[in-house]
Write a structure and sequence with these properties.
Layout: H1 21-33, H2 36-43, H3 47-61, E1 66-69, E2 72-75, H4 77-101, E3 108-114, H5 123-133, E4 137-141, H6 149-155, E5 160-163, H7 172-177, E6 178-193, H8 206-211, E7 214-216, H9 221-232, E8 241-243, H10 247-255, E9 260-264, H11 265-268, E10 277-280, E11 287-296, H12 300-310
Parallel strand pairs: 3-4, 3-5, 7-8, 7-9
Antiparallel strand pairs: 1-2, 5-11, 6-9, 6-10, 6-11
Length: about 325
């Protein structure tokens, strides 16, 4: 039997990681909130504590993780890599703790739905990866409830919902039964033909959006209001829209030079390999759409495990835009 004295000296062991668990949690909170104030609220610490923690994390890893802009924080390439791996590392660590504490625990099953179809572009692959990494958490996609995820959640037809605009019921019963929290964000990008006059510009402006038809899918009213408010504030410009029911039609209309396609980075990513399309951002900075996760309190344990696995799982398009 080995004795403590037989163990290798610390200098002979593998190098100790520089990053700490709190650094991973911080990166995910900043990514979800987009500001130090939002991350502070989510982590229940002060904004100055968030700023200090970020500076320490960047010093430990030796790379800048977020760029500070007038609109908040944007992950750098290094930050994106950290965010992509942080959620799964935390999920696996928590799963290890559960296996140690209760090795014979049964598999937990949850039903999940997304309010916006764009997440289904990558979520099935994320779920397959999740099954391999967290075999005791089984997630079923309940796509039949996509049109009314909040109602399905309130009725108990599903356990977890990923939301962009839908608001939970404000009744006392709902507040007692349901929980919601920030999860992550995706970027809404603008796609044009490489022959379009805007293709050669580094970015596009609000005026460009006023002067060209905007090509979209059949966007829900709440999401359309979010876009208008986020981009134009209190202004209510008259915009020309071309609506198509399928993403392929939206992309093909942009390819044909009919206007500017407006869609999630998740949807745009699969259509950019042909060299005939260009991705643009607003000159004022990335247009980020916040996502929230809502779940029934009875499913809190499984939902929190799911949160840790999903944070950072969404694909990104940052270095391909411009």
């Amino acid at each position: 039997m080995s004795r403590i004295s037989d163990l290798p000296a610390p200098s002979a062991m593998a190098p100790r990681p520089q990053l700490e668990v709190r650094d991973l949690e911080l990166a995910l909170a900043l990514s979800a909130a987009g500001t130090t104030a939002g991350a502070a609220s989510a982590m229940h610490i002060t904004q100055s504590a968030v700023s200090r923690a970020l500076a320490l994390a960047e010093a430990r890893i030796g790379a800048r993780l977020f760029e500070r802009t007038a609109r908040g924080l944007t992950p750098t390439a290094a930050g994106e890599r950290l965010i992509a791996g942080a959620g799964l590392v935390l999920a696996q660590l928590r799963e290890l703790e559960r296996e140690v504490a209760a090795p014979a625990a049964a598999t937990t099953r949850v039903r999940l739905v997304c309010e916006c179809y764009t997440a289904y572009r990558w979520l099935p692959s994320a779920m397959a990866n999740l099954r391999r990494r967290l075999p005791r958490l089984e997630v079923e996609l309940a796509v039949e409830h996509t049109r009314d995820p909040v109602g399905a959640l309130a009725r108990g037809d599903i356990d977890v919902a990923l939301l962009t605009t839908g608001a939970l019921p404000a009744t006392r019963e709902a507040r007692a039964a349901l929980v919601e929290r920030p999860l992550f964000s995706d970027e809404v990008v603008f796609v044009v033909s490489t022959a379009h006059p805007l293709a050669g510009r580094a970015s596009i402006t609000r005026d460009n959006l006023r002067q060209s038809p905007l090509i979209t899918s059949n966007t829900p009213p709440a999401e359309a209001r979010w876009f208008m408010t986020t981009v134009f504030g209190r202004q209510k410009p008259r915009l020309e829209f071309l609506h198509f029911p399928l993403t392929e039609a939206v992309i093909d209309a942009a390819r044909a030079g009919m206007g500017i396609a407006v869609l999630s980075e998740w949807m745009a990513d699969g259509y950019l390999g042909g060299g005939d399309l260009a991705v643009k951002r607003l000159s004022s900075g990335p247009l980020r759409r916040p996502w929230r996760i809502a779940y029934r309190r009875a499913s809190a344990d499984a939902a929190e495990r799911l949160v840790a696995a999903l944070e950072g799982s969404a694909p990104r398009l940052h270095r391909r835009a411009g």
